[in-house]
Design goal:
The structure holds 2 protein chains of 2 kinds. By secondary structure, chain A is mostly helical. Chain A has a single domain, classed as MetI-like fold. Chain A is built from 13 helices and no strands. In chain A, helix 9 crosses helix 11. Chain A starts with a helix and ends in a 12-residue tail after the last helix. Chain B is of the alpha/beta class. Chain B has one domain: Rossmann fold (3-Layer(aba) Sandwich). Helices cover 32% and strands 22% of the residues of chain B. In chain B, strands 7-8-9-3-10-11-13-12 form an 8-stranded mixed sheet, with helices on both faces. In chain B, strands 1, 2, 4, 5 and 6 form a 5-stranded antiparallel sheet that branches. In chain B, helix 5 packs across helix 7. The longest helix of chain B has 18 residues. Chain B starts with a strand and ends in an 11-residue tail after the last strand. The mean pLDDT of chain B is 83. The chains are: A mainly alpha, B alpha/beta. Chains A and B meet through helix 10 and helix 11 of A and helix 2, strand 7 and helix 7 of B.
């Protein structure tokens, strides 16, 4: 157990180290003065420039500079944005949870819909149900997320007018920022019309969540279907059937666990795709998340913001992926299989 | 009336080259309290018979039989629920590959307790029944020769040695107190002392509880000590069946004789470096089955007539299907 934890921790630390080096190098690779790119302060007075040079240790060699940079990163001083002049740390901690909220709901939706559908298709494989589910999944897998978002907007916002077009919540509601997850924030807050605000937040969530979740659902369906077909033809299922267990007992006691164990890491690996899709979808729905924020930063050549945003997003993805890997490894009793000697 | 009665069981498998008869008109009967050996080399369809009896036949297989009945009731025409109940209470199976037949993600204890049918438990409440299950499980483990039951029950299948898994499978079959035990090669890969223990256990169960056993193996030495009757299978056809003693003393089918001769002999007068006795060639694959008697191409006594499937002939309790059996002189 501890060996695995250490191994994954090692992997994570090394990857993060590479990422931090790249983000530091970005300050030099971007056009302009590295010091400006690092701090985000343009047109500094000679006094501040001296102060900044000392802060980022620019007269020392690159290693010392990197060391100082890392210290600042860990203390939460990520520089300020070119365009807004606000500290990047505050901006990112506002934007990132919005993306995560969207991703979390989309991921949950894809699991809740995808796994049962995959199971149904797999248990009735090579029948009409199976072919229907499969073709639906191929169809939805082939739709580009951004195009789907546009179509959904066209139908549900512009034609039918059922759902709001953009944003996270109606501006009428003033929800104080606490966790960054809008639904939780509303529940925690003591604003008036709580239920109205909640309802409004959900209405804003529907379309972006669906457009992000669709591709992932399709993938989950296919993974679950394939896996359960494999499992249901295994020897232990035949053996269980020969013991006279009912179909339900076989499915729940032996089928589900063995089906999910091998595909959990695969499903979890889809989270990165999900986040990527979310960043595109956010731009379309003007969702105040990190993707929208980063794309704005790129449009405005806001180099400090690009550097810090890239570091934050990629570190988050790396930490998430490694922890999921570790958790699935710890959950699965068959993974640490060493061939035992036989007598 | 025999307990298990199989007549003309045919199993066809859909392959790219068309439907192939993997089992061709198999006959097999089993009386109550009888131990029948089912022998044949690998690929002769022994395990397919097990799957046909158990009822786990995939959709792309076609199963037909004149009779496939259990205590007079046809297994083929009854519904899934009735069949399930019979499998739960009356028939138990030990599969060939214990590693694959145990759920890798459940502990051995869970799987053993799960195979205890409800009618063996007297407790009214679930905690009473759980305690009974635990007691039964450890008892049956001691029977099959696992001493440290506490430790073993908590392990996952991949955490214990292969022969422990094997014993576990046997324990899972015996714990439901079946009337028929179908043991598919239960002694394979076991060390000699364990094998003897197991055979003794099965013999004792047969004598005290009238457990009928269908013992599938190619280990003739192990079988001949305990089986009353024997059915010999070649390439999906029953070639000969009858009383064990008779078959051993005077086999009528050339294949049975070859099989008996192929058991390693330790006679003193055996010449140095003499060949092991074996038939020429190998068992044909499913795609290249010969017509007629499937032993034809390998049979030392084969003649022109052998391209037709021989009918089952009988001398008292001794059945054989051969055009030129050994008791007739060579033509």
């Amino acid at each position: 157990m501890i060996r695995y934890a250490l191994r994954y921790l090692n992997l994570m630390v090394l990857t993060l180290l590479v990422l931090s080096v790249v983000s530091f190098a970005l300050a030099y690779w971007f056009p302009g003065d590295p010091l400006t790119n690092l701090s985000g302060i343009q047109e500094a007075t000679p006094q501040t420039e001296r102060f900044l040079a000392e802060k980022y240790a620019t007269e020392h060699n690159l290693f010392v500079q990197y060391w100082h940079y890392m210290q600042l990163v860990f203390s939460g001083d990520w520089g300020v944005s070119f365009s807004s002049g606000l500290p990047l740390y505050d901006e990112i901690t506002l934007a990132l949870p919005a993306t995560l909220e969207l991703c979390a709901y989309a991921f949950l939706l894809s699991l809740i819909v995808g796994i049962p559908l995959g199971f149904i298709a797999g248990l009735k494989h090579y029948t009409g149900t199976d072919y229907t589910v499969l073709s639906l999944s191929v169809f939805s897998y082939s739709i580009p997320a951004f195009w789907l978002a546009l179509i959904l907007i066209l139908i549900f916002c512009l034609q039918l007018g059922w759902l709001p077009l953009s944003g996270r919540i109606n501006l009428l509601f003033d929800v104080p920022h606490q966790t960054g997850f809008i639904v939780i924030d509303i529940l925690l807050s003591d604003i008036q019309n709580k239920s109205a605000a909640l309802n409004d937040a959900f209405r804003h969530l529907v379309l972006p969540t669906i457009s992000i979740a669709l591709i992932n659902t399709a993938i989950t369906v296919r993974l679950a279907r394939r896996s359960i077909i494999d499992v249901m033809s295994k020897g232990y299922i035949i053996a269980a059937r020969s013991r006279g267990l009912t179909n339900n007992q076989i499915l729940w006691k032996h089928g589900v666990r063995n089906t999910l164990l091998p595909i959990l890491p695969l499903i979890a690996a889809q989270i990165t795709t999900l986040i990527t899709n979310a960043m595109v979808i956010e731009t379309i729905f003007s969702w105040p998340g990190i993707g929208n924020w980063l794309i704005q930063a790129i449009y405005q050549r806001d180099y400090p913001a690009i550097r810090a945003g890239m570091l934050a997003v990629s570190s988050f993805v790396v930490i998430l992926t490694v922890s999921i890997e570790l958790i699935t490894r710890l959950l699965d009793p068959t993974r640490d299989k060493n061939e035992r000697g036989t007598i | 009336m025999p307990m298990l009665d199989i007549k003309n069981l045919t199993l066809e498998i859909d392959t790219p080259v068309g439907w192939v008869k993997a089992l061709d008109r198999i006959n097999l009967t089993l009386e109550k309290g009888e131990v029948r050996a089912l022998v044949g080399e690998s690929g002769s369809g022994k395990s397919l018979i097990v799957r046909a009896i158990v009822g786990s036949v995939p959709d792309n297989w076609r199963l037909t039989a004149d009779r496939l009945s259990w205590k007079g009731e046809s297994l083929l025409s009854m519904n899934a629920e009735q069949r399930r109940k019979i499998m739960r209470k009356e028939i138990a199976v030990v599969f060939q590959n214990p590693q694959a037949s145990l759920d890798p993600s459940a502990t051995l204890g869970d799987q053993l307790e799960e195979s205890i049918p409800a009618h063996l438990l007297a407790g009214k409440w679930f905690w009473q029944r759980n305690a009974e299950r635990k007691a039964l499980a450890s008892k049956v483990l001691h029977k099959v020769g696992i001493k440290d039951h506490q430790d073993c029950l908590q392990k996952f299948p991949h955490e214990v040695a292969r022969d422990v898994n094997h014993k576990m499978m046997i324990a899972m079959a015996l714990v439901s107190e079946p009337e028929l035990l179908i043991a598919d090669d239960p002694t394979r890969g076991m060390e000699a002392t364990t094998k003897v223990q197991l055979l003794k256990l099965l013999t004792r169960m047969n004598q005290t509880k009238e457990l009928s056993i269908l013992f599938i193996s190619h280990d003739l030495l192990a079988i001949s000590s305990m089986a009353n009757t024997m059915t010999v299978l070649y390439c999906g056809q029953t070639v000969e069946s009858g009383k064990m003693k008779q078959l051993r003393k005077r086999p009528l089918h050339p294949y049975t004789k070859a099989l008996l001769d192929s058991a390693p002999s330790f006679r003193k007068e055996l010449p140095v470096k003499s060949d092991l006795s074996a038939l020429d060639g190998t068992i044909p694959t499913l795609q290249h089955l010969p017509i007629g008697c499937r032993l034809g191409p390998r049979c030392p006594r084969a003649q022109k007539e052998c391209v037709k499937v021989p009918a089952v002939r009988r001398i008292h309790e001794h059945y054989y299907s051969c055009h030129y059996p050994l008791h007739r002189d060579k033509l």
